[in-house]
Fold Cytochrome P450.
Amino acid sequence: MSNQTKDRLISTTKFAYGAAVGLFGMLVLKYPDCAIFHDVPENIPRIKGFPLIGSIIQEVANYEKYYGSQHEQFTKLNTLTMVTSAVGLPLTITTIDPKNIEHFLRVNFSNYVKSDHFRTSLKGLFGHSIVLSEGHRWAYHRKAAVRIFSTKRLEDYFAHVIVTELNVMVKKVLDNYALDGAIIDLQDLFLKYTMDSFVMIAFGKNLNTLTSKEVVPVSESFDKCVQHVFNMSTNPFTPIIDKFNNVFRGPQTKSINQHYDTLNDFAYTIIAERKDDLKNGHSFNDLLSVAMEQGNESGEEFSDEDLRDLIVSSIVAARDANAAALSWGLLCIIQHPEVQVKLLQEIENYLPENKNDQQQQPLLFYEILRLYPPATVNFRDALNDDVWPDGTKIRKGNTVSINLYAQARSPKVWGDDCNEFKPERWLQPDGRLRHESQAKWPIFNVSPRACIGQNLATLESITAIVTLVQRYKFSLVPNQNFEYSVSLVMAMKHGLKVHVQNREN
């Protein structure tokens, strides 16, 4: 190579290096504390991150404490609305302001839809059900579900099942633990109780997980699939992890695809059997049978796929959420003996005569769900530009979200005593029950997407809590850490371990 050629190569390299350094410097100046290519709104408070990568380091470091971490950020920024910019994640505007929540979940709800990534991640479990549907497809599923769930026959069957399964949990499990004094994990017990209850309500089949000594395959697959779709929605490396696990799994270990097959085979087998039973004149009261008999809004039969999606999504929506509500609820009651005394007094005074002026039960339920909302976050994507009531400007394509855990702990929303467990906050001065707006207490979402089964879920939770508190004394096993887990439902990360005693009389 001649000296002239070498000089040209050196000059070109220096120029390229200088250009690269210059470009890097320009990008750092343009994105000094946010993710590259994120057009961060200047008028929205935010926790500043690092040049070009934004707050991704903080997001990863605080992943296991995501709900509380956001609460701390809202407190530090002294705001009800903030924006997060992290490389690899969409620019996200999060609000806990009831006015904003009311706006994008009700007033202008058609402008905010679930993202393609979210729908793709959860499709393996929820299919094309109402959980993932938008537009006309959502309206179709919504009308069908409202009609089915408002059937008096199904409501009566629901009440029958939860009482039956509650008796199984009490007489065949808790009574035995009360006798021998052994430690029991109530959260694990409640997951089995709600699994048996809602599979029976949905399919008319009893899994008997409460009394089974062995792992019930479909119940195990259900848990694996629920966790997998959450991982798919939050961890971009999940498909790679799945392939790695599939290669190195043991011969007795199912792959995630086999777990999905187990769940689907269970559902489609029952659907086929039920069709034959109905043709032969048999009658059933479960959700599947009612849906088959009623059909869709046009009176046409549901496809097997629609039936599978309706039933499985109903179980997912109810099972883990109710188990979490019961677990956090019992913890709150155990930790607050004065609340337990009031509840027992009300049970003694009102329940034998079936009076309708009980107060402690709904007060407890509302306060438990306020502090420990099962479905803690809700993400949507904006289809068009919008302006929220607080003046926040939303651009087309922005991701918006709410965090109910942070909202419950905001003095600006719930007052200075927001962190306290105070069921009496739900009483008005005249003694009547206080009803807050859906946007301030969006536990069951906000109309028109409000949860169809919220009355049934309330019935199950209150019935279980009253029965357990009336029958047993619970004491916590010492040195437990009651952290939450970050998943589709905010459950207890380490369970709820207690000793059980029978109450006198």
